[in-house]
Specification:
binds flavin-adenine dinucleotide; alpha+beta; 5-stranded antiparallel sheet; 8-stranded antiparallel sheet; Vanillyl-alcohol Oxidase, Chain A, domain 3; globular; single chain; about 475 residues; Uridine Diphospho-n-acetylenolpyruvylglucosamine Reductase, domain 2
């Protein structure tokens, strides 16, 4: 399926190479799009000095598209015009917000970037417990607006990803245990379609499209606006956050402790175990970050369990939710411009022997590759609330995931990329065997890009998704890196 995608991408490439503009005699993007859009819409060729101020940001340097130009629409009407003109002239495009979704194959793409940054409004309706966000909003904008109003909503754990981008793939984070996925909070969306129309998708209007964008949302249009239900703050907006660092010999005991939470994780408790390597001491270690939405006294029984394993460092904080989220910024998670890809799988359970083998393999790989800076992360969120929504309700198929494994494969230059890819593909294959699922359950938003639509959306959902694709986007103008065939 990978080669199939690359073939299509190169077809797109040749369309652009012949001529930008088949239906009009324009020689620049400004001439082609400018007359149809408002003056505040920004347009630049990739060769223009101001290009970098118009193109959207990109988090990873891995598989970066070749932008021939960029357009930052100022209004939804402008966006509609940009889509219509692009489609009429067969100009491939990718609409982006925060650029946190690298996928294999994007490096083969040539076309224009539609930067959604101007749609940056967050509108709170406290009386009805709703928030409406635009396509240029990042998670931080929601987290702070709601915190200041004494409200909360489930988001991803970092401040930097695009809010709608996270949502339309599912949306997981430390409040998933309490409230489910971000798609479970979504009540309606406004979407610019391939024809350049704006439609509403909700349980009452275009309900099949609403089903599809909750999990497979990159394939059907550009979501300009999303409205979510919100909640009163838990524990006055404060959270207990603990970081434990364990030396390598403790790894098995940690995996054994994690396994005790399988199928029985408290809703207010989330954690992730991160495998990394300390280059100053030449040793691998496990860092457990633990979040509890309540006071330290309430979290103490769980803190005790992790303390009993014997961390070499333990720091306990009690802080505002916003300060916790902001740590992702200060810890460098949001830094742009590094080469980073990801491997991911969902597990049904914690297989201690597989975790231990993976830790040993990672340790050996770090030692053999002094430039490798990657990490491997096991995220644990209670799925009890997530499972209360029937699987048939949304295109997101993997509500039964208990553990979200992902790697961040980071290296300073592409010279070790072949070794990294071979090693990580092997680790993924090993971990699949004991995942508890007979076929790969892959969270699309964490995906490398080679897993294929059955792994992202489930085999069972493909006929309906393809039918909806034929209805809403028959010419495949959306969904770069996420083919449905
Ligand atoms: C540092 C970091 C932390 C992360 N943390 C989490 C986390 O805690 N939880 C989680 O669930 N995920 C997380 N992710 C993954 C994240 O959900 C995806 O990377 C998501 O695609 C990011 O959206 P974006 O707007 O930043 O990316 P972009 O690269 O701009 O967009 C990603 C894809 O979505 C499409 N898209 C973007 N906006 C729209 C729109 N409005 N309408 C239609 N299509 C659109 C784009 O065309 C592209 O195909 C994280 C990623 C990173 C890099
Ligand atoms: C483009 O220019 C050519 C030559 O000047 C002309 O014949 C043609 O009609 C023009 N097409 C459009 C769409 O304006
Ligand atoms: C960028 O520069 C080009 C060429 O000078 C100009 O036509 C265009 O209007 C500029 N765009 C913005 C957004 O400044
Ligand atoms: C929340 O934590 C902050 C910072 O530690 C503290 O100042 C505040 O009093 C706490 N509020 C509640 C409701 O616990
Ligand atoms: C770590 O390993 C490197 C490469 O093998 C070696 O040069 C260095 O001295 C080691 N450092 C320590 C603290 O053992
Ligand atoms: C996953 O594990 C749970 C119990 O932990 C079990 O009920 C369920 O059947 C498992 N699902 C699969 C697909 O194996
Ligand atoms: C992981 O823990 C087990 C049990 O203590 C130990 O035998 C093994 O060496 C550890 N792995 C590494 C890479 O240190």
């Amino acid at each position: 399926m990978l080669s199939r995608f690359l073939v299509l991408a190169s077809v797109a490439h040749s369309m652009v190479a012949h001529s930008y503009f088949t239906s009009q005699n324009a020689s620049t993007l400004e001439e082609l799009y400018g007359p149809a859009v408002s003056p505040d819409t920004e347009i630049a060729e990739s060769t223009d000095a101001n290009f970098s101020t118009v193109v959207g940001p990109r988090w990873s340097a891995w598989e970066a598209p070749h932008w021939s130009g960029a357009i930052k629409p100022a209004s939804v009407h402008d966006l509609q015009e940009v889509v219509k003109i692009s489609v009429a002239n067969q100009i491939p495009f990718i609409a982006t917000n925060r650029g946190h979704g690298p996928k294999l194959g994007q490096g083969q793409f040539t076309g224009i970037n539609i930067n959604l940054a101007s749609f940056n409004t967050v509108t709170l309706d406290t009386a009805n417990n709703l928030v409406t966000v635009g396509a240029g909003v990042k998670l931080w904008d929601i987290q702070t607006t709601l915190y200041d109003a004494g409200k909360e909503i489930q988001t991803g754990n970092s401040v930097c990803p695009g809010a709608i981008g996270v949502t339309i793939g599912g949306g997981i984070g430390m409040m998933t245990g309490m409230y489910g996925l971000m798609i479970d909070a979504l009540q309606s969306a406004r979407i610019v379609t391939a024809k350049g129309n704006v439609v509403t998708a909700s349980p009452l209007e275009n309900e099949e499209l609403f089903w599809a964008i909750r999990g497979a949302g990159v394939n059907f249009g550009i979501v300009t606006e999303a409205t979510y239900g919100i909640h009163e703050q838990t524990n006055g907006g404060n959270v207990t956050a603990v970081t434990f660092v364990y030396a390598a010999p403790s790894n098995r005991s940690i995996w054994e402790l994690l396994a005790t939470f399988d199928g029985d994780q408290p809703e207010k408790l989330s954690f992730q175990a991160v495998i990394e390597y300390d280059r100053s001491s030449n040793s691998s270690e496990v860092i457990v970050q633990f979040w509890y939405f309540g006071p330290v006294t309430e979290a103490q029984p769980y803190i005790d369990l992790f303390t009993a394993v014997g961390p070499i460092v333990a720091s306990i904080d009690y802080l505002r939710q916003t300060d916790l989220y902001y740590e992702s910024q200060t810890s460098g998670v949001c830094d742009e411009g590094h080469i980073v890809s990801a491997r991911t799988l969902g597990f049904n359970r914690t297989d201690v022997a597989s975790y231990e083998a993976h830790f040993a393999d990672m340790t050996a790989f770090y030692q053999a590759n002094p430039d490798f800076q990657g990490i491997s992360v096991f995220q644990y969120y209670s799925n009890r609330v997530t499972l209360q929504t029937p699987t048939s309700e949304t295109a997101f198929p993997w509500r039964d995931i208990q553990v979200w494994w992902l790697t961040q494969d980071r290296y300073p230059d592409s010279s070790i990329e072949p070794q990294v890819d071979e090693f990580m593909a092997g680790q993924r294959a090993n971990l699949q065997v004991t995942s508890g699922f007979s076929t790969p359950h892959v969270y699309f938003n964490y995906a490398f890009g080679d897993e294929g639509p059955a792994a992202w959306y489930s085999e069972a959902n493909l006929p309906k998704l393809r039918e909806l694709k034929a209805k809403w986007d028959p010419d495949y103008v959306f969904g770069n890196g996420a083919p449905l065939y």
